[in-house]
Amino acid sequence: MQYITDIQSYQGKKRTAVTLGKFDGMHRGHQKLLAKIKEHTDENCESVVFTFDMGRECLMTNEERKTKLTGQADWLITCPFTEELRTMKAETFIQEILVKKLHAEYIAVGADFHFGYGTQGDVKMLAEFASEYGYKLDVIEKEKYKGKVISSTYIKEALSQGAIELANTLLGYRYGMTGVVEHGKQLGRTLGFPTMNVAPEKEKILPRFGVYACRIKVDGTWYEGIGNVGVKPTVSDEQKRLTEVFAFAYNADAYGKQTEIEFYTFERPETTFSSLEELKKHVEQDISYGKAYFRDALSDCAGSSK
Ligand SMILES: Cc1cc2nc3c(=O)[nH]c(=O)nc-3n(C[C@H](O)[C@H](O)[C@H](O)COP(=O)(O)O)c2cc1C
Ligand SMILES: Nc1ncnc2c1ncn2[C@@H]1O[C@H](COP(=O)(O)OP(=O)(O)OP(=O)(O)O)[C@@H](O)[C@H]1O
Fold this sequence. Notes:
By secondary structure, the chain is of the alpha/beta class. The chain has helices spanning 28-39, 62-69, 83-86, 90-101, 123-133, 152-160, 164-171, 187-191, 276-304; strands at residues 2-4, 15-21, 45-53, 75-80, 104-110, 136-140, 144-145, 148-149, 176-182, 196-198, 210-218, 221-230, 242-247, 258-269. β3 (45-53), α2 and β4 (75-80) form a beta-alpha-beta unit.
């Protein structure tokens, strides 16, 4: 997949099948659009995911979207939502970007897709220009879950409530974060639970602060664990957002290593404990909870394969 952040550097020569939007999270609705453009690709036609980088807090960083789409699309174009793009008339966007630049022969969007200055461009306008510019337009019915339309906004709401299983269902994969293991106060090991401290990107949305059964990938291997998302108010007043994971079966030095974390289930909210002893007692319970969670999850899998 070719990744560019500036439409002027697009060098594609073939016709394209394009989908457009913010694509924050690449949730199940977004994946439906991706499947549609992939259906239309062949030796003469490449798939293009065109996203707008709004520069706001997000479910997925640009780098994470790039990783997720690698092998799934021929081009990922992530355009910063500049003044030029914001004030571009919808007709100009169709003519200059979709037609002249991308040579679009197929466009797939959801029914509520809007674009162009004042968001005046919509599926009606895209349909009106279709025969003139020789592209086919597919307006995709919104993917729903239990009758409710899946959207990035819905997933953000679920995460803010700690409803991680719901968020994972709407996404179609497990929500997580990536980052490098940093040095903490090294208190954890003295308390009996060494943790990997991983700071999220500034714009990355974290689930509700609290304790989660999670997995962490270090050096290519996934480890089960229990982690705290938050600012650890018992031991720090820095307000620095971190995910701290105690991986049950990891006992090497992970400082400086790139990791990936996936959240499975919410156990309890982050708490300001009155002492380190109280904290230790609760973390011991959290560890038992996490181990039981993964043990039960594994035995459920074994049961279902019978
Ligand atoms: C499972 C787990 C649960 C935690 N829960 C809390 C909590 O509720 N409140 C809190 O202030 N810190 C919590 N922490 C963070 C600990 O305070 C922190 O890991 C410990 O002080 C070690 O910090 P260090 O890595 O800077 O040495 C939790 C950590 C883990 C691994
Ligand atoms: N549930 C869905 N099913 C199918 N297509 C969708 C769905 N949600 C969004 N789309 C389409 O995917 C593209 C990108 O959507 P976008 O990321 O802007 O929407 P969203 O997920 O609804 O986000 P937000 O909640 O921020 O409005 C658009 O063409 C949009 O219409």
